[in-house]
Amino acid sequence: MKLGLLTAPFESVDLMDVAAWSGANGFSALEIACWPSSGGEQRRYAGTSHINVDGLDVNQAKEIRDSLDGHGLAISGLGYYPNPLHADAEHRDEVIGHLKKVITAAGLMGVPVVNTFVGGDRTLTIDDNWERAIGIFTPIVEHARNAGVRLCFENCPMIFSYDEWPGGHNIAYSPRIWRRIFEQWGDAVGMNFDPSHLIWQFIDQTRFIKEFGPHIAHVHAKDLMVDHDGLYENGIMSAGMGWQVPRLCGLGDVDWSNFFSGLYRAGYDGPVIIEHEDRLFEGTDDKVKRGFLLARDVLQPFIK
Q1: Which of 42, 144, 182, 252 has the fewest CB atoms within 10 Å of its CB?
Q2: Contact, 189 vs 152, CB < 8 A?
Q3: 47 vs 32, 34, 36, 134, 213, CA distance in Å?
Q4: By C-alpha distance, which of 252, 254, 240, 239 is closest to 279?
Q5: What three-state secondary structure class fits 223?
Q6: Taking a C-beta distance cutoff of 8 angstroms, is the pair 21, 4 a contact?
Q7: DSSP 8-state code for residue 220
């Protein structure tokens, strides 16, 4: 296993500066955030562009890889997390076009994984969203296959605010949908597994890893705390709003010993990438770095 971090919180820091700090502080992999360099993404924890994939050529791809190699860092994957099932067709076309560019860039760089969301129209049923997903993602999956890249979906419901309520912006969150995904596309796709999203859905982590472990191709390490006062106040019908609190590893309710035990039993030996969404360690680069180091120290004993 390799312990690394997702570069998204360093939105104003050059990739090579992120790499120099990461390599010097015991990390061995980066998931590189690849939103459009033109900006436009307003969602928190999104919009960072550490590689401009528009027109990336073979020489530029090699230069990036060589520079990261010099810092002792592997690239676990390229990350772009939009909503390809958005209600607005023009928006869908825009983000799908960029997702394909990210996939092409990963192929040029020899990066095996591109992480993204299936997406979702919050006003539609799960089944209606699924029918849209089949039509949209079948050619994208084929594009990834031709590029030598495995497309990986994260298991996040994407419902944190009333802009995403009631159905969320990503339908790939429950075992029922994950079975459909692998029945539809098989090993051409994988799961980017984040245990924090199981906590507030009250989905059993041990059982989930046992069922889907063979399909896990990338791992996000993020914790989550259930605020029981908020849960009492809002109830489960609020779909987590007001009581699901993203935390850094070791500061929430994820059982990390159980988590790694499950991964090892499933045969997973890939990257474990810390995802930083903890508001208590935000505001300055120094706070963000402190958060990553805290999570590093919690996880490192499990990674050999």
Answers
A1: 42
A2: yes
A3: 12, 8, 7, 26, 30
A4: 252
A5: strand
A6: no
A7: E
Residue (of 141, 19, 144) closest to 71 by Cα position:
19
Q: What does each C-alpha distance from 272 to 18, 172, 207, 238 come to in angstroms?
A: 17, 20, 20, 30
pLDDT in tens, 243-276: 999 999 999 999 999 999 999 999 999 999 999 9
For tokens 């019908």, the residue is: 237
Return d(Cα 262, Cα 233) in angstroms, integer.
Answer: 34
Strand 74-79 to strand 29-33: parallel, antiparallel, or no bridges (unpaired)?
Answer: parallel
Q: Is 133 exposed, middle or buried (0-12, 13-18, 19+ CB in 10 A)?
A: buried
What does the block give as tokens for 150? Answer: 């495995």
Residues 6+ apart with CB under 8 A from 96: 84, 136, 140
**Poorest-confidence range of 10-14, 81-85, 156-160, 275-279?**
156-160
Q: Decide: 288 and 281 in contact? Cβ < 8 Å.
A: yes
Confidence of residue 90 (pLDDT cuts 50, 70, 90): very high
Give the torsion through C-alpha atoms of 186, 189, 194, 199, to 10 deg. Answer: -40
Domain 2-302, CATH among 1.10.10.10, 3.40.50.1000, 3.20.20.70, 3.20.20.150: 3.20.20.150
Output the six-digit token pair for 290. Answer: 């402190």
* DSSP conformation letters of 102-146: HHHHHHHHT--EEEE-----TTS-HHHHHHHHHHHHHHHHHHHHH
Question: Who contacts 180 (Cβ-Cβ below 8 Å, separation ≥6)?
Answer: 130
Residues whose CB is less than 8 angstroms from the CB of residue 78 and which lie 6 or more positions away in sequence, other chains included = 31, 32, 34, 51, 53, 102, 105, 106, 109, 111, 113, 114, 115
